[in-house]
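Case study.
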Amino acid sequence: MTIATSKAEAGRDIGTEKDKWLRAYRQMVSIRLFEEQVNEVYTRALMPGLAHLYSGEEAVAVGICEALRVDDYITSTHRGHGHCLAKGASPDRMFAELLGKEAGYCRGKGGSMHIADPATGNLGANAIVGGSVGIATGAAFAAKTLGTDRVAACFFGEGALGQGSLYEVMNLAQLWKLPVIYVCENNQYNEYTHFQETTAGTILGRATAFGIEAARVDGQDVRSVNEVATRLISRARTGGGPAFLQCDTYRYSGHHVGDINREYYRSKQEEHLWKTDRDPILVLTKWLIDQSYADASALDRITSEVRTIMESAVKFAIAAPYPNVEEVEKHVYA
Amino acid sequence: MPERELTFAQAVREALAEEMRRDSRVCIIGEDVAEAGTPFKVLSGLVEEFGAKRVVDTPISEAGFTGVAVGAAMTGLRPVVDIMFGDFITLTMDQMVNQAAKAHYMSGGHWKVPMVMRTTLGATRRSAAQHSQSLHAWFSHVPGLKVVLPSTPYDAKGLLKAAIRDENPVVFFEDKMMYKLKGPVPEDDYTIPLGVADVKRAGDDITLVATSSMVQVALGAAILLEKEGISAEVVDPRTTWPLDEKTLIESAKKTSRVIVLDEGYGRYGVTAELAAVIAEGAFYDLDAPVKRMGAMHVPIPFSPPLEDATVPTEQTVFDAARSMCKPA
Ligand SMILES: Cc1ncc(C[n+]2csc(CCOP(=O)(O)OP(=O)(O)O)c2C)c(N)n1
Ligand SMILES: [Mg+2]
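After joint prediction, the assembly is written out as follows.
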């Protein structure tokens, strides 16, 4: 089950402008509705562990991944469902992973924070903040060394700007002109603390200090994200070196599903503003309608198709069996 | 009057609050330690009492703020660093192992590093491979560091106060599954010296040496064993370093059979060390080889049935103890 015509099948250049943005719409709705189901399943106590929802940040993952090829790499974070879906993962196997089932992407061994999928270039979500900056940079190093023209996109939250290893690898990437894009998803908060309380100076200044090409975009506008990403990715692919992309965005829910009383660190009014004025799906909806690419009923149809897919993905996952206990000792070594 | 009960988390918080009231040099440094009171809510209320100058929120920079704590400890403060998940100690390793642990020795005794690192251990919280490890063996390996593993609210308060008053870097591991465990905790100012084991239950037939999360498991197994007519003694070393070798060896000599339980990996780990200490000290009094039980040698899997298989349980400890005492 795939949620959209995969980019590999479609090919990069086929498809009109209209098709491209309708596909982006579908992808963003997929992420939103996937996370709605996660919230539901979690609240019904069917999902073990923690769930960090991506709702509100859809335009970042989709804007970037729509500019990548299926054989390009990504690394993801604890808030990774959106990245995995946008890169082409299928919701049924993702849900199975979230519930620890054998049919999951990692045979249930990884869970929500560790989804990995070689078929879509997903090197893995990572539960260590900043934990994948080396991996993404390493994938770019291998691409350059092996002479493939693959690019690696490294997703991380602005909280990862606190990790020193990020600065070590950015220095290496620029020295060696590696095809890696550092995608900083600034959703304003590191857990329960506003990023301005943890971040001195500017975000882009960190990249420009190394001479890395840096840009800042409205992360709620998938077209802006995609436009800048397309330029930076093709620059990286053709030997132009790394880039750093700051995407300003917002997470709609708590840091994780259990983070319900949030008023000690952010106001309901702030949440409301982002959800109404800057919602990435509403922003694209308006544009699609203004362009006469779709009307409301066509978009509703997409939404209800996606909803059906998500509901059956959940059903599939709930019915799927757990791995055999013997599986526990498998895969420690290759 | 019945004894006052506190949860493990409340006991930790009370120890910190009392030490901060007693000594203005004690401060807390870590991620979301202030208003949020950490994700486990262990520190709730402290910033309200002591202010943001002494309960300091940091960026997500474990190596950086641990290094700051080392330097601050050398120059007049007594920092208590908070590392949210024990898995993240890997990020602090150079600061702890090459700096904190060695500053006193390398300087010929000039500098001291009176700091505490509080962190967590323990699996079965469905947190997967990067949030479930018990890595206390890593620090136990290094001369210059002390390592504390409280197993009850009472011990948590007394040991943490002793750790804060210690002149050395001390790493304090809290079992995150135990935060809600309740137990008697006196309101007084008491400390428990580092390096003194505690016999949590007396017995004659077998000794279960257990640390941290495994103490409750051992006590549960002891109750099952009693029903089979086997009397188990449960000994909690409470600190892996300094180590109360004498109490372990005496118990082993008394019962002649020993199982060592620890939630870390057995390979080159805490159980290996404790078993070796016992084997060396009580060899001629033992009726069976010392048995070790710990986490299975795998990264901790997410899937519940797999994760549950990775740690010793009351039942598996009971089975192992019974077959040692009553060979089939
Ligand atoms: C090295 C490390 N330190 C701390 C944590 C605990 N933690 C998990 S998510 C998080 C906040 C991350 O903020 P950010 O990078 O902005 O990502 P967001 O959650 O906002 O998507 C923290 C502190 C961790 N997982 N890894
Ligand atoms: Mg953030």
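Observations recorded in class. The first helix of chain A runs from residue 7 to 10. The interface with chain B takes residues 48-50, 100-101, 106-114, 126-131, 159-164, 190-193, 197-199, 264-265, 322-323, 325, 327-329, 332 of chain A (CB under 8 Å). We will return to this complex in the next lecture.
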